[in-house]
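Page 37, top half.
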Amino acid sequence: MTRISRAIAGVAAVAIAGCASPPDTGDPKPARPAVEENDAAPLARADKSARAVDTVAATPAEVESELRELFGAADLASLSEKLETAADTPSWDIPITINSAVERWLEYFQNDGRENFEIYLIRAGRYEPMMRAMFRDAGLPEDLVYMSLIESGFSPRAYSRARAVGLWQFIASTGRRYDLGISYWVDERRDPILATKAAVAHLTDLYEEFNSWYLAAAAYNAGPTRVRRSIRRSGSEDFWTLAQRRYLRRETRNYVPKLIAAALMAKQPEKYGFTGFEPHAPMAYEVVEVPDATSLDVVAKAAGVEAAAVAQLNPQILRGVTPPGERYQVRVPPGTSQDFATNYAAVPPSERVTWVLHVVRRGDTLGEIGQAYGVSVASIRAANKNVRPRRLRVGQRLVIPRAGRIPRYNSTTVTARTRSSRRATTPQRPDGPYVTYKVLSGDSLWTIARQYAGVTTRDLMRWNGLRSSRIYPGDEVRIYTDESQ
């Protein structure tokens, strides 16, 4: 065999092998880091003599002649077609098994689920590049991003009946386990960056336990306890065995086939008839820091962009305003952070917050609340979609649009939240020293009184003009420490 023949035969063998379907070897382990440049030096030295033999380049005519001699004219055309097909065929780094369960999902996504799947493909453009980078940096299969497709359709605002939230559909307990903050003001399960970071950590833990991406995915859906129980009862660690024997719930039995079908279609949409759609541009942003309780519309105005653009980059901010009591980092569109810094510095502090929180007290009505803040009932209802004017609950929280105005009372003191005249009396305050106590969650007048010698619940009610002993977090209670003075 000539020098060219040896080279061509080797290339052809590798190409043909690449065109063939590989056997199913089970679930792959996380990808190993790329070899550093210096690590390749021993291999280069070991192969030096072999490479020195074939140093003369062959001409195109010589290559074609050798190929025809090796494969024949007809086979040459077939080989060329296989090489071209192999170059255009995507690969996957999660295990791909084709069976009847997967085929059913492929059929569903192409028919009944077609409209939604196309929406998911469009949204993927915004989040998939960021997700792939985070999985790659963690050494995990990048195609795990398609779990977000089947979990949420790549929507950070997705919400399920099980109260799972965000791109990765975390329930509250799992979200908090992976350091996602959840409060009245912020839900980081909706944060694309932080939620993906949590998903990477969660999937790493699941793979380390089950040593199978199919079982890790099943545990992500059903919880690791259910999967452990199924393995123990069945005596098998094969997902398909667990599914066939129905040791897993129906939703979980469908989860892995659905993931495989989504991965197959999302990487080659044209093959399955999805054409003519334009994916969203990849998520891009800069970060600015603002003081506490800053409205996103104020941030947008200072940055010179639409409020919707800032809201889209910060879906974790639930009330349109950053959390009170802490500085907060807000994402703004690329190229706007400098304008923001300049313009925001010129905004008076009284105009930096255009929303305020109101906690409903006994006797409150939307009309009274609106009058106190100088806003219409319609504005309050628009800002609180689920509010029922005739069914306000004591302790219910309402977001009040302020349009930069200071309300006639402060929302953190006893007098701040429109205490009804039916509850309030004129305070009877003796002369002398006193302390102001800010009520915390779980406090009561009785527990506060016990902290001060000689003070009773009745004293606190009399000193603060209260007809009821009910108090709320954020209230301020005046306490006279020595009434004789």
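Page 37, bottom half:
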Amino acid sequence: MKKWSLVCLISCILLWIPNIIFQIASPLWMLTYIIGPIGMAFSLIGKNYILAFLNLVMTFSFFLFMAIGYYINSL
């Protein structure tokens, strides 16, 4: 289960690459709302709480990136 949780975490990170690195407006980042909780469930079943936390962060990554973006634009 830990392996599947790590796969979900890496896929969530890879879904953000077109938007952040290449500045291409890709709607694929919305899959983080589906893949993140699945990865969190896998990691909780496997009792790996670090991966559970990281998948939780990736589930709410849109709000984190929006907050960072607004903060950078306000400088």
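Margin note: The chain has a mean pLDDT of 93.
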